[in-house]
Specification:
The chain has a domain at 6-111 and 143-174. The strands form 5 sheets. It has a 3-stranded mixed sheet with strand order 1-12-7, with helices on one face. The chain is built from 4 helices and 12 strands. The protein has helices spanning 77-86, 144-159, 172-175, 177-180, and strands at residues 11-14, 21-22, 35-36, 40-41, 49-50, 56-57, 91-94, 101-102, 115-116, 122-129, 135-142, 163-167. The chain is globular. With 215 residues, the chain is of the alpha+beta class.
Length: 215
């Protein structure tokens, strides 16, 4: 369960690109759970969120590492929504990985290491190969497939009555050495000459710090 109001933690809470009221139904035996507008920090208790009518909203979810990007296999998103509905949940944390490959250590049921992560936020244009053998990434060119999937999945969730938190960053990718090797901002993986590891300590913490000279 998530008790904190997540907009305070570098995440965008939204009601799925849909303005107004939506209602979700998981079958004849389930009560409707309406959502009303975007969430904001509650003025009555800043530890919680409130909707557009200032009703306190208690967010509950069933977490999945792969509800946005495919890592171990193609993710069945509709089955995932059905599961949340059956459990009367009202919230999804749309998990995002930054690296081109996953370090299996942070998966609940680790498969073999170095599984490809798809889709990525940036296009792999080359010329030249990244550390994982695929084309280098161009950090000036966003991947339309990434944002089309993001919009579609958030809309589908909104139609079922869920609030969605979209992750902007993912800390494992910049503090775990194995994952950092596959990070787009690792100088070995992009065509732009950007090196996120400014202090050359083998990880890319600087990527998430505004003091970086190239931000």
């Amino acid at each position: 369960m998530n008790r904190l109001c997540l907009p305070t933690a570098l995440m965008a809470i939204m009601s799925a690109w849909i303005v107004g009221e939506t209602e979700a139904r998981a079958g004849d035996d389930r009560a409707r759970y309406p959502t009303r507008g975007l969430l904001r920090v509650s003025s009555d208790n800043p530890r919680y969120c409130a909707d557009s009518e200032n009703r306190t909203v208690y967010l509950t979810d069933s977490h999945s590492w792969e509800n946005f990007q495919d890592i171990t296999a193609t993710f069945n998103y509709q089955a995932y929504l059905d599961r949340l509905t059956a459990r009367h949940h009202n919230f999804i944390r749309m998990w995002v990985g930054e690296s081109t490959r996953s370090d299996a250590g942070w998966l609940q049921q680790p498969p073999a290491q170095d599984n490809p992560v798809t889709p990525l936020a940036y296009l792999r244009t080359g010329p030249g190969a990244a550390s994982d053998g695929g084309p280098l990434l161009d950090l000036t060119r966003f991947n339309p497939v990434y944002f089309e999937r993001l919009k579609a999945r958030v809309q589908q969730a909104g139609q079922r009555g869920y609030y969605v938190s979209v992750m902007l960053f993912q800390g494992f990718s910049v503090v775990e050495p194995h994952a950092w090797k596959a990070h787009p901002f690792n100088g070995n993986n992009n065509v732009n000459g950007i090196e996120g590891d400014e202090d050359r300590d083998g990880v890319g913490k600087e990527v998430h710090r505004s003091s970086s000279s190239w931000v």
